[in-house]
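Supplementary Methods S3. Input chains for the assembly prediction are listed below.
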Amino acid sequence: MTWKMVSKVEDVKSDKKDGKKKSLFTNHEISMLGIRSNLVQASFSYERMHAPGWTWAQLPFWEKIYKDDKQGLKDVMTDNMEFINSSPPLYPILMGLLLTMEEDHVDRTTIKGLKNALFGPMAGIGDAIFWFTIMPIAGGIAASIAKNGNVLGPLLFFAVYVFLFWSRIPLAHLGYNLGTRAIDVIEDNSKIISHVASILGLTVIGGLIASYVKMSLTINIGAGNGAINLQKQLLDKIFPNILPFAFVFLLYWLLRKKVNPIWLIVLTFVLAIVMSALGWM
Amino acid sequence: MTWKMVSKVEDVKSDKKDGKKKSLFTNHEISMLGIRSNLVQASFSYERMHAPGWTWAQLPFWEKIYKDDKQGLKDVMTDNMEFINSSPPLYPILMGLLLTMEEDHVDRTTIKGLKNALFGPMAGIGDAIFWFTIMPIAGGIAASIAKNGNVLGPLLFFAVYVFLFWSRIPLAHLGYNLGTRAIDVIEDNSKIISHVASILGLTVIGGLIASYVKMSLTINIGAGNGAINLQKQLLDKIFPNILPFAFVFLLYWLLRKKVNPIWLIVLTFVLAIVMSALGWM
Amino acid sequence: MTWKMVSKVEDVKSDKKDGKKKSLFTNHEISMLGIRSNLVQASFSYERMHAPGWTWAQLPFWEKIYKDDKQGLKDVMTDNMEFINSSPPLYPILMGLLLTMEEDHVDRTTIKGLKNALFGPMAGIGDAIFWFTIMPIAGGIAASIAKNGNVLGPLLFFAVYVFLFWSRIPLAHLGYNLGTRAIDVIEDNSKIISHVASILGLTVIGGLIASYVKMSLTINIGAGNGAINLQKQLLDKIFPNILPFAFVFLLYWLLRKKVNPIWLIVLTFVLAIVMSALGWM
Amino acid sequence: MTITLTQGILIAVWAMIAGLDCWLQAFYIFRPIIVCTITGLILGDLQLGVIAGGLTELAFAGLTPAGGTQPPNTVLCGIMTVVIAASNNTAPTTAIGLSLPFAMLMQYILLFYYSSFSLFMSKFDKYAEEGDAKSFKRLNYIPLIIVVLSFGIVAFLSAYAAQAPMHQLVTSMPQWLTHGFELAGGILPAVGFAMLLKVMLKPQYFPYLLIGFVVASMIPFSNVLPVALIGVVFAMIEYYRSRSDAKTEAKLKELETKGDDMEDGI
Amino acid sequence: MTITLTQGILIAVWAMIAGLDCWLQAFYIFRPIIVCTITGLILGDLQLGVIAGGLTELAFAGLTPAGGTQPPNTVLCGIMTVVIAASNNTAPTTAIGLSLPFAMLMQYILLFYYSSFSLFMSKFDKYAEEGDAKSFKRLNYIPLIIVVLSFGIVAFLSAYAAQAPMHQLVTSMPQWLTHGFELAGGILPAVGFAMLLKVMLKPQYFPYLLIGFVVASMIPFSNVLPVALIGVVFAMIEYYRSRSDAKTEAKLKELETKGDDMEDGI
Amino acid sequence: MTITLTQGILIAVWAMIAGLDCWLQAFYIFRPIIVCTITGLILGDLQLGVIAGGLTELAFAGLTPAGGTQPPNTVLCGIMTVVIAASNNTAPTTAIGLSLPFAMLMQYILLFYYSSFSLFMSKFDKYAEEGDAKSFKRLNYIPLIIVVLSFGIVAFLSAYAAQAPMHQLVTSMPQWLTHGFELAGGILPAVGFAMLLKVMLKPQYFPYLLIGFVVASMIPFSNVLPVALIGVVFAMIEYYRSRSDAKTEAKLKELETKGDDMEDGI
Ligand SMILES: OC[C@H]1O[C@H](O)[C@@H](O)[C@@H](O)[C@@H]1O
Ligand SMILES: OC[C@H]1O[C@H](O)[C@@H](O)[C@@H](O)[C@@H]1O
Ligand SMILES: OC[C@H]1O[C@H](O)[C@@H](O)[C@@H](O)[C@@H]1O
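Predicted structure tokens for the full assembly:
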């Protein structure tokens, strides 16, 4: 974010702090904003990612703001058709925040700059929290119950996500009410938070590799009494889950060599079937 | 601590470093100071906490210092009747330290300032070490032996505290011998040490919650083969001890809402009895 | 390292970066340097430690460099007869690095200063990695297999060290190819790396004490039903491996009191035999 | 058992609902644990659906669409795992492997849409420039409808129309192949984790990956919550430390600028 | 069994000794593990005393008087747990719950003293101003005597005088109530820990609370020493780090003042 | 069984090979796990050699020559453990203790060489000054030969020549003494670790020692790799932190010098 832009935001902020804002939108409308934030991926394409859905979700609100200002509506729509990608569950906050700014007719470039500065980091943070932490934990617990045929498993999983769906409503209110003050929070902390979210995410991925990737050899070396089972008496003694760890890093290395992920899946199947045919796994 | 006071202490320190002090008190007397430090809570009241006991414990020593100086005795007694509260097992060091200062007739305000600056932090440090670390560990080990009816449990516990009682003697000597040099140590480190003691204390409390608070549901959900035990097949799969943790935080939240602790005990009993009556625990 | 020396090294470095060096030595010769690095301890004595072996190992290479410069050969040999001690498995890098410098006829004092500055820290780093981490891990795994009479144990151990032996070859190439740039890496990081290696080393030693020192009392206290086994019902309840930990620190304390290590071995045997005779262990 | 036409249609409807959710990521009913359960319900074997759901959920752990990637599709995989298991009496673990081709078919269709939906962008841009809100909104329905219909059609064809050859394939499969598919299901999450690592792993985060791995390996627990909590511990400690570091740095920078200003001033 | 008068008097004497220690916090013989053991000895059932001591000690973990607070009194609780268990053949776990009202009675008496002993302060102040050491010393004995006597009286009444109604109460208690008291004893430490947290928990210390909790939950051990050692590890690492941070900060501050001085100088 | 002359000679040869490796630290075939195995092979009981190798390796853990120290010699200990166990039917655990005197004999011989080989240094210096590469190289062979021959002779005498008295000693040993030697073998690693600590332990590293100890005690595993990995975690975290600290410090220093320069300048 350039210095100039920040100083503009500062102006806005000081404007804002002065008095209670006379809000254009009802509580119910802000709640609807939270729910409409689910539309961002509607017309997903690699070219613009969330842009059309993002615009669609907010369109009714802009129509209200720019009721008598056709050019304003054109501008805001055009501006928001730029490439956007971030973590869907965090959009309600962002939408709420940007809505106050639109409502206050903050300078267009300021809004744009802000959007570009915030969305990238928030994608990383959101993914670490939602995809790589909440989902495997909820999924893992639910799956461990479901595996025994108990329907509480899927119900529990569903409950978690109904809660997350619902949480979009208060988050939208939060973004809208904090307004530009939310920027302070996000701005000051986004570097730190994405650092911290990476720590959390990678710790969890480390745990997931150990828990979810299942590889175990059935080969014996030697015969008779002194025979040892390669898995139990050698590999497991070196370190349990050493094969899954090694295999993940093999795949990682292939990915960094620009191998297409689909080949990794093929490799996995070929390996599994060959090992099965040889009786090694 | 103000800058002025510190600089005064500095003077004292440099005086001290020059030569071996010709001590007014015998070894035996200093040992007695350590033992008398047990009196600090004798006349405990919320108004002054340890003040009268603290004064009482040291009175014989001041009488010796101010043998021919009635006013001196009056001053020191009056000064020490100010509110004081710190961790009892650490008093011997403090008493030893202040005794050298009295002996050297250090300026009264310097002594007072020092006392005020040192006692607060030392309460936190001492509590973290003695109440929240040593006691649960000694108690936990001793209790685990005693539960089987072995008298070694209480004996072990007693031995630990006889040792701590005895340790007041060397601590008094330490305080007395280090003299104002002890201030350096405490001063430089007190912020860090209380930070560090909090880390230790809270780690232990976390462990205690898991080990000592016992809550376990006996409810089953569903019937027949697919029935699951709420505790063993759901809660324990999410995280063991999740109920104790949640309950402690419920109580914590109530305390922060200024609920009187006695109500927490009542709540605990009501909950326990209701759960028992319902057959849920 | 003095400022002056560093600046000289800087000169060398900038010289070096300009063009691809026309190397005096073939690939095979550099590989031989790696293998010859095994000779450093040939004439080990407390007076010079690795000096004569170090010189011997590199002598053929210096003969090539100083083919027509008898004085040069004399100088390099004399210089290298100074006391040297470092971690043998890291020598290939150092030798490779110094060889480029000799080849470029870098100022003698620069080379000497560098050697003195690098060797100490590298001893600590190397020992932490090779003696205190790789060896106990390889040894521990191999031993746990061998204990059951499976010959895979020693084979595995041997394989690890054949690999380490072989690794001297690429390390020599690395040192030779990086040349003075290797100094940057080592110089900037040596303080940090030795700090970090200490962390690793001491963590492992802590683990080794718990895993490898075996002490366990067989004493019972009390009789009949309430009787408790001192080891299982007291010591193990306080903390498992508390005796090994205490004993190691007793020995550590004796060593710091300048007791000769041989007495520690004697003490260990006397203790073991007395405990055995008393039936306490 | 064979899948009846009604069941086939119900499955198609369910695929459209779950597929819409998969596209929008709203309720996460596109995850295998839900998809399998409902499919089981449709096929009249809830129990099987739930069990297959648990197993498939684990196999698809880590295979997330984060960053706009597309893993094998969970909706198709979930449906076909239950369908194959139910109609051929195969163990769900093996059925997971057999359902993967269908999941990958759907994955490729979605990837094709991710690329080709760019075609709509010029239209969107035009409406935006004109401030034509109504047309803009309407246009958004087209990709949605395309996606939803695709899910329905692919699911119907896979589950209902292809069942005969599928049955033949499955019953004629030798034991080693069946077992191979089972193994593949267990190894599959590795692919997802490797993809995550490619995005997230910088050298300074390696220790955290390692501690997570070590803790989970040493303390086997039924889910990764303990590991996540340890991650939270490290993250929070680092958070407070980073904040104080940031303050120090800010002060340093201030001093530097001040110093420079003064130099300039002199 | 019934408590004889001699036993009642012995218990009162023991309550006075332990009560004095409870007030001064010298030998920690006021903790349940000791109080129960000695009470068991007095009642002729050492074994019961020791067992009850172990259980009561655990129930009172965390209920400390740190910061001048007063938890339910351990001396009364310890005595009454053993008395109730011995005289009614109740399990010690249930007896803990039943002894709590007595412990709370004593708690409130002590809290009353904490407030009312303020009355002595003006006297103390006067003697101090007059430098009257002798009277000052003597005055300290009065609160001590009040406290000690209170312990003796309350213990005697509770253990000896109230035993008949107590017995009736206990024997007529339904099973669910007995079990309820038992449960309460197990949950009770939560109160103490919540009180500690109120004093000690700042956001930046939360990760340490969490790691302690996770480690103790995952690695069940007979005491919290392993957890405490892990606390020591984190504390020591943080100690050395804080020291180096403090140095950096000191240098920064120095530079800042220097800078300011120079600015002023210019 | 008795050791035949051929076996005695083979052992001597093996002692020379392993001894050379012990002196140079090249292939680590001087460690007990290898020495015992080969000795077992020579004595015709590979199984015994391998087992004894495992046990002796553990007993000698931590007894390293790091820093130029000399622990009891692993080559002699390895050979004699197997020889004693094989020829007296002693359990390998006891044989370890009995082999220690031989290991210490060799240790002292090597220590003597460490001191006395200083005598060669003036010769080396002379050849270096003269640039006499050939003589310099040749001179290096002398210490090597001395060391190698010593190993051969000591091993031959211990294993072959001393076997009769050895046998008598072992068979007449009372049970408590045998058991004592066994215990000693288990405690022995403590010596090595104490020596390491003397070199490596600074106060700020104590927490890491502690965490290693606690983790290994709580999570018993067949080797220290998990502990080492946790060490790697802490080391890496500290590495990145130290690097950023070093940067801050460098900046601070820069500012200080700048400040000083300016002060001088004014
Ligand atoms: O990575 C950010 C973001 O990228 C895409 O938009 C989708 O895959 C989302 O699920 C993801 O959260
Ligand atoms: O908190 C400091 C201090 O406060 C009071 O004086 C008592 O409760 C002590 O036990 C405690 O140590
Ligand atoms: O400590 C450095 C170094 O010292 C000596 O040279 C030998 O003991 C080596 O094995 C060791 O690595």
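Chain B has a mean pLDDT of 86. Chain B has eleven helices and two strands.
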